[in-house]
Each structure stands twice: as structure tokens, then as C-alpha cells.
Design goal:
The complex is a heterodimer.
Chain A (H helix, E strand, L loop, with lengths): L8 H12 L2 H8 L10 H14 L8 H4 L1 H9 L7 H19 L8 H12 L12 H18 L11 H5 L16
Chain B lengths: L5 E6 L3 H12 L4 E4 L7 H4 L25 E4 L5 E4 L16 H4 L14 H5 L14 H16 L26 H12 L5 E2 L38 H7 L3 E4 L3 E7 L5 E7 L5 E11 L3 H10 L23 E2 L2 E5 L14 E3 L15 E3 L5 H4 L11 H11 L3 E5 L2 E2 L7 E9 L5 E6 L6 H18 L4 E5 L39 E3 L14 H20 L6
Parallel strand pairs in B: 1-2, 1-9, 2-6, 3-17, 9-19
Antiparallel strand pairs in B: 3-4, 5-12, 7-8, 8-9, 10-15, 11-14, 11-18, 12-13, 13-14, 16-17
């Protein structure tokens, strides 16, 4: 049978989940056990939540589902090797501050609480010592930039699953190579 | 086995070095052309935004690599940090056969007459090194023509009211406009400006054995998939190799110029592709490694005869570093105006290159080449959210409704923006790295303000419903791909590094042929000027050599 798209297992699960009406939890629970290169599974769960805040799911997938965590995990053992210590320190800092402020892990906060938390980070207004010298602002900037790179960059680096952002932007993908349109 | 001595070694196979290699090898001289990178093709990286020269967040597609290369950046407060080639502060230019000419936008400008006479035109600018070139536009005109015909340029300068006089038109017709450029052209005419189709080192029709551009838009920052973009790698370098007199050595990093016990330059040392240190002797050396790396190599070549580096008797090597500021404006339109019809940048005006009230110099303005999804995620009007729901909606609603007008502003150079070598930090091969310091002259601020205002006005006239703008002045050192000025030409050895043929004043057989020579950098992309200088310098060396001058 010819399929217009290659249906990946994950995408199939998502569609199945959509039709069953049980969208999010189902696809998470049913997903394969991720083996991460750098992140611990606890860090990866936090990264998924952060990525969804940076690029929220709406009629198009959010950062988490699009593979932001996988992209960053992959790059942290390659071109982003130099950011490893920032990620280790920053992700722990987020959980610790979340426990201090809300007595809960970040991914368990409600949507608005998560947003306000990140807005404080973006503004450099976190109080805990781990965020001294503008580390809150700097780490937030890293997560934001890397999430955007994953979501809007080429899928060959582990993010932008199914070229989802290109479809959202109504871009032809892959580009049609070989077409000579020089006709004035 | 030791390398055989040759007539000429050229360091760097980019815009300057590629041309010189062709001129000398076809004149019968034996040439070794060194390139620290490899030979890259479109298929190596395709249109991957994150691995492009436009946006190298995961590395430079055309080199250099992050693993082995470093620079040091000095801040205003005296602190410094190490930068990688994939970081903006590195001020990278591609390291591959063809260098920047593989990934450039391929704009094919001749500098205007005034650009060679900035001091005569604008007088003394306190705190600047603004100076006239030792050659005029007329001196370079025949070589611009040679570059246009041998490498291949599309365009029609008779449509540009402000273009300098020329003997022959460009060899190929100009490109037609895409949707956004058509709208902007009409708006420019309503404003009384003089729009024209930009000259390009790119085939609008088949030329030089290469096909016509097939109008894909991801062409700046990327190699051309069909070879319609003309760089030195697919024009003059193949001619040089075909001559039988030129050997191209890729993945070879030149470390030092060597002198004999009488202080005469006899060759250079380099690390080959297996990182073995080797020597190459030659009668003549030509440096075409770009403004930062050419200066670095001279400064790293210290000896009893040249304690401060070769050519640096008067502390001018590495000084006068300059790039371009990029004043710009963005406009949002009600309807979609972006199409994927390349080359994206095609409508330009030269109405503001010179003689603007109260401004020193100026630059051209044009629509911008390309919009890539990740880059666009950082483009927002002031106050707009940079993440979250609002950001994502903006992204999909406006990706095809935006246009950008910008242009390279001719920076006013100064003595303190410079390249030197770091006393401690070394690269993979143990060679001291380039250290960049200083900042641009304050005189650029009113100029860029003026240009950004004009860009915004143009977009508004074209129908933009919301506009915003920026000066595009670097936060620290300004060099980038248009880096220039570090070995400037001049008649007076006390205030320049080379003579008007690019020969280093204090040595008979060492030449420079790249953007380092530019006394000032025009309000234009510099590639065609670097190529023209390559033809002039290469032609000079070859004709002298064949008259018996051995540059001793």
C-alpha cells in the first residue's frame, strides 16, 4: 500500500490517541522508553514541560511532542557539549526553585504557574542563589534558543518531528530541486 | 619527501587567492594554492538552516570547525573570552575551496568613485583612519570588467543612475524580481528613488559552462545546488588547475612565513591534512586568507628581522579592521508577499550611497535575500513576546507577510578596531589565535539612523502596515564576512602595510590579495572588488615576472 506520508509509530499513536479522545497522557505513556544520551529521565520530563511552555501545543504540536528534548539531548553530546554543565545546573535549579516556591516539581505546576515561573526567569528575577549573576536569564535564553532551533530547524538534527513546523508555516518541504523557473 | 620549491605560494583559495592562482598559473608560473578547508558541495549540507553559513548554530557548513579553531574577543571593559567559529563574535568567513564565494549572496558591486576617495570627499573625521585609496576607480575599472566576464555577472548597470562609468556592460541580463521585490520597486519609483535589479555573480542565463539559476531562494549561506552561483571554486580555480601549473592543497593550515639568515622571505611552514608540519619554499608569497587571518599570519611570523611580525614596522598590520553595519527595517503587510522565488534580494537603490546631508558615506538599500524559520523566530517588533503561544501564532501568521529592507553601511574605520594575536590561546596546531578588539566609530550612528529611516520609509510606501527598524551596528568588533582593512594599501609606508599593488612595503616578494587591502570598504558587498584586486595584483606579478623581475 502506498501511503502519502510515512507514518511513524509515534505519529500513528498520536492519531490513534486523537481519535480515542485521550490525546496527551496516552501518547506519553505509550511512547517507547527513551534512552537519553545526556539527560536523566527526570530531566527529560522537565525538558518536555519547558519545551511546551516555549512552544505551546495548539492546533499544531508543542515543543515537547515535536522532539525538542531529543534535539537538545543529542546536541549536548555534540556541538553543544560546552553547555552540559549549564543544563545540569539549570534544570536542577528549576526543580529546586519550583519546590521552594510551589512545593511541587515544575512539570506538575499548572500552566499559568509554569508560565509565571519562566517569566520570572526571563526577567532575571529569580531569588535563589543558584541564579546569581544573571544565570536565570542566561539559562532561560539557552532553553528558548535551543527549543526554537529544534522546532524550526531541519529535522535531521533530532527535532521538528515530521517537519511539523515547515507544514505549519506552509513551506514546501522538501524543497523541489531541479525546477528551472527562469521564465520572465 | 620535501616539497619542491615553486614560483608562488598563495595562502587561501577564496575570492582573492583563487583569482591570483589563475592569473599566475595561466601565465606559466608554478603555483601552490593552500586552503585550510576542504572542497564542499551543496549535497554535503543541503538547505539545513542550523548548519549553514547563515546560521551556524550547530557549526559552519563550510568551515572552519569548532573543534580545532578559536579566536579571542576583547570587550570594552578589558575582559576577554574565547569564541568558537559557530559563534557570531568569531566573525567567521568560510574555510573551504572558494571560501565566502561558495556561500555568499553573490552581489557583484563595483565600488563608486567616492569610495576610493573617502577623505577627499568627506575630509578629516576625528578619531578615524578615513583615507583615500592609493588607486582610483579608474585604475581598477578594467579589472572589475575582467572579474565580471571571467567569473560571470548578471546585471545592467545602465539601469543604475549612480553606477560609476564603465566600458562594457555586464555579460548577462539582470534577474527579474520576485513578488516582494516587484512591490518594493514600484514603491521606490513613487518615492522618486532609482531602483534597479542588483548585479549578481550568478547566472541569469547559462554562462561559462554552468547552467542558469533555477530561482530557489535558500541561496545565501548555502552552496548552489546547480552551480549557477559563480565563486572562485567553479570558475577561476578550475582554470588554474587545468593549466597544469597549479597545485591545490586542501586541509592545509599555514602557520608561519619563514625568512632566511639575511631576512629574505623564502617560504612558509604549514600543517598538512595529517597535521604534519611541513615547509614550502617559493620565490613569491601571496596572502589571501581574509582580513583577520592574513593579519594573524603576518603577526605570527616573527623573527630577528621582523620582531613585531612581517610588515608591521609601523604597527599597521591588523589595524583599521572594518566590516559593515547593516541598518535595516522590517515591514508587515496585510497580504502574503513572500514567495520562494530566488535569489531573494533583487531590487536595490544607490540613492543614499554618498552625499547625504550631514552623513559620512552611506550605502545601498535592497530587499533581503532569505527568510528561514529559525532565524525568523528571533525577528519580532519591539515589545512582542519571544516565546509562548503569542510567539508561535506570530510565526505562522506573519512568516510570509514580512519584508526586510537593509544594506551595508560604509563603516568609518578607526585605528583601535583591530586584529592581533593572543599571547596565550592557541589553536589545535599550536598556532597563536587571532584576538579581536575595539569597536566601531561613533560617526556610524547618525549614518545608520539615516539609512534605517530610509529603509522604513520605503517599506511604508510599499504598503507595510507595521514597521520597525534597527541600526545594525555591531555590539563589539565589526568584521564579519565583509571583513577588511587590516593590511591597507597606501603610498606612505608609515601609514599603510602594502603599496598600490598589494606588495608589503618592507619586503620585495610578499603580497596581499584580499579584503585586507581595502583602505575603506564602500557601502557595498566587497567580493567583486576583492576579485578585481586579485586580477590587478595577479596580472602585475605575472607581467613583471615574465619581464624578468624576480622580486628580489
Amino acid at each position: 500500500m502506498d501511503l502519502p506520508d510515512k507514518l511513524s509509530r509515534r505519529r500513528f499513536m498520536r492519531l490513534a490517541a486523537l481519535s480515542a479522545g485521550g490525546i496527551y497522557l496516552f501518547s506519553r505513556c505509550a511512547g517507547p522508553t527513551a534512552e537519553w544520551r545526556f539527560f536523566t529521565s527526570s530531566e527529560a520530563r522537565l525538558m518536555d514541560a519547558l519545551a511546551d511552555q516555549i512552544i505551546p501545543p495548539d492546533e499544531w504540536p508543542g515543543g515537547g511532542e515535536s522532539g525538542v528534548t531529543n534535539f537538545i539531548d543529542k546536541q549536548l553530546t555534540g556541538p553543544f557539549l560546552r553547555f552540559q554543565s549549564e543544563y545540569r545546573k539549570g534544570l536542577k535549579g528549576i526543580q529546586d526553585s519550583s519546590e521552594t516556591l510551589y512545593h511541587q516539581r515544575f512539570e506538575n505546576l499548572n500552566w499559568k504557574e509554569q508560565t509565571s515561573f519562566l517569566e520570572l526567569m526571563e526577567a532575571g528575577k529569580m531569588n535563589e542563589p543558584v541564579w546569581a549573576d544573571g544565570f536565570d536569564l542566561k539559562f532561560f535564553g539557552l532553553i528558548r534558543d535551543h527549543s526554537m532551533q529544534s522546532y524550526y530547524g531541519s529535522s535531521r538534527h533530532g527535532g521538528n518531528r515530521d517537519n511539523i513546523s515547515y507544514k505549519m508555516l506552509k513551506l514546501d518541504y522538501p524543497f523541489i530541486v531541479g525546477q528551472n523557473r527562469y521564465k520572465s | 619527501m620535501a616539497n619542491q620549491k615553486v614560483n608562488v605560494v598563495i595562502v587561501g583559495a577564496g575570492a582573492g587567492g583563487g583569482v591570483v592562482a589563475k592569473e599566475l598559473s595561466t601565465a606559466g608560473m608554478s603555483v601552490v594554492l593552500f586552503e585550510r578547508g576542504s572542497w564542499i558541495s551543496y549535497d554535503d549540507h543541503t538547505d539545513d538552516e542550523l548548519l549553514s553559513e547563515r546560521n551556524p548554530v550547530l557549526g559552519n557548513s563550510c568551515g572552519p570547525d569548532d573543534q580545532r579553531n578559536r579566536r579571542v574577543n576583547v570587550h570594552f571593559d578589558g575582559s576577554s573570552h574565547i569564541v568558537l567559529p559557530s559563534e557570531g563574535d568569531y566573525n567567521n568567513i568560510s574555510a573551504c575551496v572558494g571560501s565566502g564565494t561558495v556561500t555568499y549572496g553573490a552581489l557583484a558591486w563595483r565600488y563608486m568613485r567616492e569610495d576610493f576617495k573617502m577623505r577627499s570627499t568627506y575630509g578629516d573625521v576625528p578619531g578615524s583612519t578615513l583615507e583615500d585609496w592609493p588607486i582610483s576607480y579608474e585604475d581598477l575599472e578594467p579589472f572589475y570588467e575582467k572579474a565580471e566576464w571571467e567569473i560571470g555577472v548578471s546585471g545592467n548597470d545602465s539601469q543604475n543612475l549612480f553606477a560609476p562609468p564603465r566600458k562594457k556592460l555586464q555579460p548577462m541580463p539582470p534577474f527579474t524580481h520576485n513578488k516582494e521585490a516587484t512591490i518594493l520597486k514600484e514603491a521606490a519609483l513613487r518615492l522618486g528613488y532609482h531602483p534597479f535589479s542588483l548585479p549578481m555573480l550568478r547566472n541569469s542565463i547559462p554562462y561559462g559552462g554552468r547552467p542558469a539559476c533555477y530561482r530557489m531562494r535558500t541561496c545565501i549561506g548555502y552552496a548552489c545546488p546547480v552551480g549557477a552561483k559563480a565563486g572562485t571554486h567553479n570558475t577561476v580555480i578550475p582554470v588554474a588547475l587545468k593549466s597544469g601549473n597549479c597545485e591545490l592543497r586542501t586541509n592545509c593550515v599555514v602557520s608561519e612565513i619563514i625568512v632566511d639568515d639575511r631576512g629574505k622571505i623564502i617560504g612558509l611552514t604549514y600543517f598538512d591534512q595529517d597535521n604534519n608540519r611541513k615547509t614550502q619554499l617559493a620565490d613569491i608569497i601571496v596572502l589571501s586568507a581574509s582580513a583577520i587571518e592574513t593579519a594573524r599570519l603576518l603577526l605570527n611570523s616573527k623573527s630577528g628581522f621582523f620582531p613585531n611580525g612581517i610588515g608591521n614596522e609601523n604597527d599597521w598590520v591588523g589595524r583599521n579592521l572594518q566590516g559593515h553595519a547593516y541598518p535595516h527595517a522590517f515591514g508587515l503587510f496585510e497580504d502574503e508577499i513572500y514567495d520562494d522565488f530566488g535569489p531573494g534580494s533583487s531590487v536595490g537603490i544607490c540613492d543614499f550611497n554618498h552625499h547625504n546631508p550631514g552623513i559620512v558615506g552611506g550605502g545601498y538599500l535592497a530587499n533581503s535575500f532569505i527568510r528561514m524559520p529559525y532565524s525568523f523566530s528571533g525577528v519580532r517588533p519591539p515589545g512582542e513576546k519571544l516565546w509562548g503561544k503569542e510567539h508561535k501564532v506570530f510565526q505562522r501568521e506573519n512568516f510570509k507577510r514580512m519584508a526586510e529592507v537593509h544594506g551595508p553601511f560604509q563603516e568609518i574605520p578607526n585605528f583601535h578596531q583591530r586584529v592581533d594575536v593572543d599571547p596565550k590561546v592557541k589553536d589545535f596546531w599550536g598556532i597563536p589565535v587571532a584576538r579581536l578588539s575595539g569597536k566601531t566609530h561613533d560617526e556610524n550612528i547618525p549614518g545608520c539612523t539615516f539609512m534605517a529611516d530610509k529603509a522604513e520609509l520605503w517599506l511604508k510606501e510599499a504598503g507595510a502596515v507595521k514597521t520597525w527598524k534597527g541600526l545594525g551596528i555591531a555590539d563589539g568588533v565589526s568584521a564579519g564576512q565583509h571583513q577588511a582593512g587590516t593590511c591597507r594599501m597606501g603610498n606612505d609606508p608609515r601609514s599603510s602595510v602594502t603599496d598600490k599593488f598589494g606588495r608589503v612595503h618592507s619586503t620585495p616578494n610578499l603580497f596581499v590579495a584580499d579584503g585586507s587591502l581595502h583602505v575603506t570598504n564602500g557601502g557595498f558587498n566587497p567580493a567583486l572588488t576583492i576579485m578585481a584586486l586579485g586580477f590587478r595584483i595577479g596580472g602585475y606579478i605575472a607581467s613583471e615576472w615574465n619581464k624578468g623581475n624576480r622580486f628580489k
